[in-house]
Specification:
This protein is mainly alpha-helical. The chain has five helices and two strands. The protein has a two-stranded antiparallel ribbon. α1 packs antiparallel against α2 and α1 runs parallel beside α3. The longest helix has 26 residues. The relative contact order is 0.09.
Amino acid sequence: MGTPLRSQVLTHYKKLLRTAQNVFQNDPIRIASMTQGIRENFAHYKNVTDEKTIKELIRAAKETDSFLRREVLQTIQTDENTYRLVVKPYMLFDNTRLIRECEDDEKAHHEEEEEEKTRQQGLTPCELAAQKLK
């Protein structure tokens, strides 16, 4: 493994360990389990020499880190039937774009359905527009 790739692998190994510590803060059992899993996974691939495969593994490590940071939520039991959700600042993001994309998809789907109905009825777009005005 070339020095730049080795450096990247070590960087992502350490980053994943830090992410596990941060994401599962105050949960030593989960931290130990994640740490063990990360160590075993990196050890499993330690003899890989193919540069393309190493780059793919680095990409997978980046995606795993991102997933853990953005998607994993921690809860803390406050009493027998109550849990508190721990939301960290980096988990908050602007979902305005996502809402717009969903609305656009819904509008496009509706338009496609209307076009399909038109085709089934054998109407031209002008005839359909005239029907809507009635």
